[in-house]
Design goal:
Elements lengths: L7 E4 L3 H12 L2 E6 L14 E7 L5 E6 L13 E6 L2 H12 L3 E8 L5 E6 L5 E6 L5
Parallel strand pairs: 1-4, 5-8
Antiparallel strand pairs: 2-3, 3-4, 6-7, 7-8
Helix pairs in contact: 1-2
Length: 137
C-alpha cells in the first residue's frame, strides 16, 4: 500500500452524523466502529464512534471519531479541510452540500487570484475551503 495523507477529524459525540453527512457530500463507502465494539460496552460512549473512515470514489479519504473521555475536544482545532480542482460542477456540488446550514465566511465566488473560492464552517465545527481553478487564457 502506498503512503497517503488524509484528514482525521475530531467530534464531540456527533461523529456518526457528521461522517454520514460527508458520505452524502462525497459518496463512497463509510466504515464505522464504536467504542462499545472495542471493550467499552455499557459505558456512556459505547455507541459513539471510536474510528470512522469514508473512502470516496474520487480517491478522497476522510477519517474521524468522537473525542474519547479524558481528551479535550477542540472544535475544528487549527485545521481546515481544502477541496480543490478544476471540475466546476463537481466542486460546486460539494460546496452546496457542505455550506448548507453552515456559517459561510467567504461566499463561493471569483477571487482576486482568478479562481472561484469559498469558505464555510459546517454545523460540526469543521472549516471547509473549496477552490475551483479557472482556465488561464
Amino acid at each position: 500500500m502506498a503512503s497517503r495523507l488524509n484528514p482525521y477529524l475530531s467530534f464531540n459525540g456527533d461523529a456518526r452524523t457528521a461522517l454520514e453527512h460527508y458520505k452524502d457530500v462525497f459518496g463512497g463507502t463509510l466504515t464505522l466502529s464504536t467504542f462499545g465494539e472495542f471493550g467499552q460496552a455499557g459505558t456512556p460512549q459505547a455507541d459513539q464512534i471510536m474510528h470512522g473512515m469514508l473512502e470516496a470514489p474520487n480517491g478522497f479519504t476522510l477519517m474521524g471519531a468522537d473525542t474519547p473521555p479524558g481528551m479535550e475536544y477542540s472544535p475544528g482545532g487549527n485545521v481546515s479541510v481544502s477541496v480543490s480542482g478544476d471540475d466546476d460542477a463537481e466542486l460546486r456540488g460539494y460546496w452546496e452540500k457542505l455550506s448548507a446550514g453552515a456559517e459561510v465566511s467567504v461566499p463561493l465566488d471569483k477571487q482576486m487570484w482568478g479562481d472561484v473560492f469559498g469558505m464555510c464552517t459546517d454545523r460540526f465545527g469543521i472549516t471547509w475551503l473549496v477552490n475551483i481553478a479557472q482556465q488561464q487564457g
